[in-house]
Sequence to fold (322 residues):
Amino acid sequence: AGPRNGTAPTLLTNYLDTQYFGEISIGTPAQTFKVVFDTGSANLWVPSYKCSPLYISHSRYDSSKSRTYIANGTGFAIRYGTGSVKGFLSQDIVMVSVSDIPIIQVFAEATVLPAFPFIFARFDGVLGMGYPSQAIDGITPVFDRILSQQILKEDVFSVYYSRWVLWGGSDPAYYTGDFHYLNVSKSGYWQISMKGVSVGAEMLFCKDGCSAAVDTGASYITGPAGPISVLMKAIGAAEMAEGGYVVDSGDHRDLPPGTSITVCVSSLQQSQYGEDICVVAFSGLDIPPPAGPLWILGASFIGHYYTKFDRRNNRIGFATAR
Ligand SMILES: CC(C)CC(CC(C)C)NC(=O)[C@@H]1CNC[C@H](N2CC(=O)N(c3ccccc3Cl)CC2(C)C)C1
Fold:
């Protein structure tokens, strides 16, 4: 049947403003999985039924239960900035949206997942929305498989954060004004040239321009650790043990020791251990060459805009989200 007017939404769940994931199905009969739609990578993987029981709380793909499964078996390993996922390749029918866009897809069944950070993952797997040149093992990414079916109105997908991914177009009901387009600077990544990083009116970093990846699978804005720590001092943030920063508001300083109330200097609120703390939406991450040095504009940036990822014109459009 395919999408009605050439576009189809996939609804996203928002977990603590840090993880956004939607449901896809793989196999016949359908086995459903929660996946992050990640413009910062280009492969699809889900946990394998053969995976260690540690991830019993996650859905796992069982090829023996699918009539449309085709064995492949090639080894697979993907090195994220935060850890590696290992497994093997399989082929089956993948449906990315309730308006049934069925595609035959090669994906990885993950058999080795690093406890950190995957024990914090509320999603089962990752659906990479990056360019084919970024795909491990030269596998054609999901969006490219959909494009080759010629069923979408436009060769684009739009992200209206914490709500949905729209395949094939953008919906004016959810943004105002025009799109401001930035050309993709380095094909293979959804990467743009950033003109500078300012706090208030003062340009502090990236004075001669630098590169930034627009990364729907990342929670925060990350930059090289040095500049970020200077930026954090500038806003009076304190570094947390496990990385990341929080800020205390002056008027709460006289609280009894052990209580930490913070004032939001970012739109992120994470309630941990029952209390409300506000995590500043930046973190330091040094990405080594050739990919780095690279700033990452993650959900805490993208969430303020309606973002259109345009594969036809190799550009990213930002409009004001309604
Ligand atoms: C270093 C980047 C720029 C390049 C690299 C290139 C890939 C082709 C390997 N891409 C990435 O590393 C990916 C860039 N985009 C984000 C992605 N995430 C990292 C991460 O830590 N996640 C996460 C979040 C919360 C809890 C648990 C986890 Cl696992 C989710 C995913 C895997 C989507 C890694």
